[in-house]
Amino acid sequence: MKLLNKTLLIAFPFLLCLTVACSSDKKDKVIDKPTKLSIDGQKLKGTYKGDFGGSPIYITLNYLSANNVAGYNVHKGLRRNIHGVIKKGDNDTYVLMLSEPGDNEFDGTFSITLQPDFMSANGEWKPNSSGLKEKQFTLSKVVINQDDEFDPIGSGYELMGEHSDVSFDNDGTCVLNYYEKINDSTFVQQMNTLKGTWEKDGDKVRVNWQPNQQFNKRTTIFEIKYYTEEGTGEKRPTTIEGDGFEFSLIMAG
């Protein structure tokens, strides 16, 4: 009996320390749990545009739940889903850590620092592949003013041409469908589809195409053509033309 009591006296301090250590570990785990941020989702969500290695990139954020964020980006017509987390940064900024799926050779991860007003950001992209270079970029939020005159460029509407159509969406996506011309009156039966990313500068729209086998050009410059109304002298856009294509900007109805 004396031996048992002596054993208990020796073991008790060890058991006490072990209990305290376990309790401390549990507390540490609770402290490390990320704090839920109070963010206005309507301010965060939207499309952000910037220069990405010489061609435009559009990053659209359309999901926010607690600290989880998701959306997609469009660059040279390649659309990739992105998902990750948002956390508080320095000086009231917010930091986004976003990953692309990883099943494409051009996938990577984004680190984006948003300003407090969610209107601009700085970021960097790190590729998953060692053969690609990291990129730094700045972003500005795309603001659509509902009071502005309707502009078919950026509306997503299909603009019709001869055996062809093109659309420019506000998330940066451009889709061109066309039947290749054999001669003045004959076209091939198989439709070609090109995807790209567009950027408007004055009366010109520059499209960077996703690499493809059907169209050997990587960039197309479309020019907006106008007519001038008699009496008022007001200019109205009529067509958009480039690389042998011509599409009407006059919307039906």
Would you kindly provide a written description of the structure presented here, covering whatever features stand out?
By secondary structure, this protein is mainly beta. The protein has helices at 2-32, 41-44; strands at 46-52, 55-65, 68-75, 78-88, 94-99, 108-114, 120-127, 135-141, 159-161, 164-168, 173-181, 187-201, 204-209, 219-228, 235-242, 245-248. Residues 14-18 and 20-32 have low confidence and may be disordered.
Which tags fit this structure?
2 domains, 8-stranded antiparallel beta barrel, Lipocalin, Lipoprotein, globular, mainly beta, 8-stranded antiparallel beta sheet, signal, single chain, 16 strands
